[in-house]
Amino acid sequence: MERKEKLQGLLEKLCAGLYERDEVVKLSLLTALAGESIFLLGPPGVGKSMIARRLKYAFADAKSFEYLMTRFSTPEEVFGPISIQKLKNEDKYERKTEEYMPGANIVFLDEIWKASSSIQNALLTIINEKLYRNGEQEIKVDLKGLITASNELPPLGENFGPLYDRLLLRYHLKEIKSTKHFLEMITGTEELYEDPVPAELKISASDLQEWQAGINAIKVEDEVLSVIQIVREKIEDYNAKQEDPALQIKVYDRRWKKLIRLLRTSAFLNGRDKVDLLDCFLMVHALWNQPSQLEVVQEIVSETIRKHGYSVAIGLPMLRRELREFEQEVLEEVRIKITQTEEVLRPVEEEYYELLKNGEGFAGKYIQVKDYNKLQSSEVPVMNVYDEDFKLVNRLRADRSEAEFQIKLNHNSTSHHLQLKTYQKEKLQYQYKAPHPLVKKFWDERYDRLNTYLTEQKERIESEKPEELVKGRHNLFIDESLVPIVEANHQEVSDALSELELKLEKTKHLYERSH
To answer: Which of 74, 85, 383, 419 has the most C-beta neighbours closer than 10 Å?
Structure first.
């Protein structure tokens, strides 16, 4: 069974019977396989402990440990009691850890912010280094997944920052929204605490060992690194606008490094050899500090992927600028400007033409532009004449114009031959000359270089098209509704490269036609 197929079947079993919890189950499994942790924020009764218990069934022979923290919790209750025998016979202060957190693979710590400072300090080393100091020795813990939970954020001023920062993903769990799902949940009779995963779908120790090397070999492409860097800059810009430091989105270097590991794991489990833009949406769950920032982070990540995904990686802004400079250089060399003047009408108030003051009774009067335009046809319209306040002063029968800027008005058998006021306007024309042969040779070389680069990038953008944009493929951990964002950027960059190819050909034609 292929890796992705196996994981897809596993996720279906883990999510069975749970409503509106697919995303958090998938993220919990992803963090476990990446060797990371997740924090679940939500009120009591929304399934936080259920998710943790389900997760242990994903692993063959997994040992789990679950504990509800209180302000009176002691290290003995989490890490194990002191071994009296060791203390008595060997004078060593060591804990019996086998049945406690250091001896477990899947750990769920509820109400994590009630942990004492001594428990916190031990957790920091376990989470970050997978080590637990037991007396004089350091134990390498086989912790695959750590799920922590609380119905509140870490209290301010109580130094929970280091622990909160080490919990890579954060997820805000809420009550079931759909009425249909709610009714199915409360009337369901299936046993949710039994193991729903058949043996063939469970992840074995050999799977994990083999997968770790594969995850480390996953490539991180330029477009992914560009997106991460731009997201980081946008977060810094957002923080600079916040007067209250408590509202800032705090993301430190360690979190960015851990994110790369998570993205590599996602790519590997999806059966790819490189991280793609769709994997980048996982950043949303790692960058917020409080739920009010979630929408901001979602917007930053989505906008960055939509606008800058592939365009920055292939140097699209720089390429546009170089082609613009190339075109301008060619124009300045082969084009000669010639300025001529011509008589043109000047509308007044955008609606009127002024009559020249050489006609009796019509000096300083105006006609409407639309009336003049009618004179250009074979019709014989009524001509309205207006004074300087653009009030109607006369209605006349008018012949069609005898010359370009002349009109002939008939009134009471009297003929008036009038002209419209014009002004001289400069008209720019161009002539082209052949470039010097050495200049042309230099341009041909520049054209060849740019054309080769454009061709390579078009081939690359097509060959590296994310599999999820191909019909029938999907990402195990990213919702399909996000695919169009990546698809839009991919199409936009593909179109832009085609437009630049056309622009380059026009520039070449410009200097070649001048021979």
So the answer is: 383
DSSP state of 490: H
Q: Is 337 helix (H, G, I), strand (E, B) or coil?
A: strand
Share of the chain above pLDDT 90, in %: 50
What ranges in 80-160 are assigned the alpha helix state H? 84-89, 117-129
Q: Which domains does the chain have, with CATH numbers?
A: 1-215 (3.40.50.300), 217-336+436-515 (no CATH), 347-420 (no CATH)
Show Cβ contacts of residue 145 under 8 Å, excluding neighbours closer than 6 positions: 28, 29, 31, 32, 37, 38, 55, 105, 106, 107
Distances (CA, A) of 478 to 215, 262, 387: 18, 13, 71
Whether the CB-CB separation of 25 and 51 falls below 8 Å is answered with: yes
What is the DSSP annotation of 164-201? Answer: HHH--EEEE------HHHHHHHHH--S-TTS----GGG
Calpha distance 188→193 (Å, rounded) = 13
Q: What pLDDT digit, counting tens, does each position of 339-377 carry?
A: 888 888 878 878 888 887 655 567 778 888 888 887 766
**CA dist., res. 474 & res. 468, Å (int):** 5
Half-sphere exposure of residue 350: CA atoms within 13 angstroms, side-chain side = 0
DSSP 25: H
Cβ atoms 156, 37 nearer than 8 A: no
Please state, in angstroms and as integers, the Cα–Cα distance from residue 494 to each residue in 9, 197, 222, 281, 311, following that order: 35, 43, 17, 22, 9
Place of tokens 């335009």: 373
- Rounded to the nearest 5 degrees, what angle is found at the Cα of 64, between the Cα atoms of 62 and 69? 165
d(CA 278, CA 152): 30
Residue 36 tokens read as 């990371």
Query: What does the block give as tokens for 349?
Result: 């108030």
Cβ-proximal residues to 162 (8 Å cutoff; 6+ apart), any chain: 120, 124
Helix (H) or strand (E) holding 410: strand 406-411
Question: Distance between CA atoms of 455 and 51, rounded to whole angstroms?
Answer: 49
Structure tokens at 378: 């074979």
Q: What does the pLDDT look like over 136-174, one tens digit per residue?
A: 888 899 998 899 999 999 987 668 889 999 999 999 999
Q: Tell if the pTM clears 0.85, that is, is over it.
A: no
CB 37 within 8 A of CB 145: yes
Q: Which residue has the tokens 């800032």?
A: 248
CA distance 110 to 46: 13
**Which two tokens mark 456?**
């390579």
Q: For the chain, what is the total number of helices (H) and then of strands (E)?
A: 17, 17
Q: What is the largest CA-CA distance in the chain?
A: 136
- Burial classification of residue 384, based on how many CB atoms lie within 10 Å of its CB (0-12 exposed, 13-18 middle, 19 or more buried): middle
Q: Which of 164, 183, 159, 139 is nearest to 38 (CA)?
A: 164
